[in-house]
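A quick aside before the break. I want you to see a complete sequence-to-structure record at least once, exactly as it would be stored in a machine-readable document. Don't worry about memorizing anything.
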Amino acid sequence: MSAPFNETHDVVVVGSGAGGMAAALTAAYAGLDVVVIEKAATVGGSTAVSGGAVWIPMNPHLDAVGATDSREAVYAYLGAILGNRLRRDMIDAFLDAGPEMVAFLEANSAVRFTPRAVSPDYQPALPGASLSGRTIDPSPFDGRELGEHFALLRPPFDEFMAFGGLMVGRKDIDALMGVVSSPDNFLAAMKLLSRYALDRLRYPRGTRLLMGNALAARLLKSALDRKIPLRTRTAAQSLIRENGRVVGLVAERDGETLRIAARRGVVLATGGFAHDAARVAAMLPHASQHYTMSPKDDRGDGLRMALEAGAEVADDNIGNAFWAPVSVMQDKGREIRFPHLIMDRQKPGLVAVNQAGERFVNEARSYHEFVEAMHHSHETTPTIPAYLICDHRFLRKYGLGLVRPALRPLGRFLRSGYLVRAATIPELASRLGMDAGRLTKTIARMNEYALTGVDAEFGKGGDAYNQYLGDPKHKPNPCLGPIERAPFYAVRVYPGDIGTAAGLKTDARARVLGAGGEPIGGLYACGNDMNSVMAGAYPGAGITLGPALTFGYIVGRELARG
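That is the input. The structure line, written in tokens, reads:
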């Protein structure tokens, strides 16, 4: 006879990121008794530290930005990228339920989205690509609405906040950097700073929340409003099965073992396996020189428990993680990582080179494609690490990784070795251990391209996505500028990720499948515990959170059906 349960619910959700919270909210709205357990001390998972973009084709906000979309266009675009890895059943489910999910959350929770007037898909030259409308952002959120629960929200990375706790978006950065350049910038900057100053009188950081932190906060507020129990510091250990069906799980909290029953089902949304060293070594290339940006709690708990219950992990993806180039600084015993996503590589006056001092990629390509190029180049020429190189003018205007723009001391970055500085390009090459002649020629070619506005080698600045993230004020190409004003600087970047893509095999109803392809009764997965609906490709901003929210919604709807 099995041990008794400590408590019983209709649904047990494991993980408090976007997918798990969407499942919990949808099920609770249908009247089910739901509990969310979270291993960390805070709620939000990797969603809370993400950029927050949500990719939902044909979403209800298209009209607001004058955009149009169609199923045919989406299929043309995804088909060009995914090829024979496109699972029509999963894409159909995503396209059907995505717009419904947006409408449902906006009508029945605190979640609100803001459309982007311009947001090109990452490969805009392909058939069916969109220049706007598919990506929506969580609307900014006032953290004060969480009251005493504000501390329950996972904060963003320290390195992504200004002045020790102020969240800023692209427009905010422009206002702060150009505070004396126009009355509008001055007023916007003063508004931000005065609000932040008041916040710090009562809170450990600013309460004006943006990006993924705003989405996590809105989901948290919604769960609190629905009175969904949120059990933090509670780690799921194993699933409980009876007659082949998952009926609950074993969890541990403060040294106490808990048996929690689930009448309808258990939802796995634990964030993937980015910190499971054994699985990373087996599934990601160059694991010893790979740096993840995922929270340390993402240790593959959901995958491990499901595998013990007879599930399988997909093994035929284009890639098993969502790649991003990452720079790393060792500072006073602390390792600080920075993902080079959109703030520096695309700007005019930067070049990326391998150990031979030669370019290997269009620097303005998406972060995912940039690392794919690193992997490919490394097959013939050492490219791990690669080097981002710029001049003094670029560093002060745009910044480079952890080095913020404007006139700020560089001492700690130079002393740590994170930032390498030299008076000349040959000297910089020597300090980086590369051929001075080759690097000098590479820089000379980039300077020629800056004059003509045409990158004859890799086409930097040649498409809408590149130009979207360049400097629109810089002519003739917003992504190409000279590298000529000494001193010169370099930062090493390594392959990294912002989450894992390989996950549990499921059907289009998010039911976890066993080895024979049949659903395991009572077991569901979403977020990074579900295998990427994009098969490990990265077509546009928000293709992780979009499917996570959508399939979380599908799970909640499925559970409500009984």
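Two observations worth writing down. The domain at 322-497 is CATH 3.90.700.10 (Flavocytochrome C3; Chain A, domain 1). The CA atoms of residues 180 and 383 lie 41 Å apart. We'll return to this after the break.
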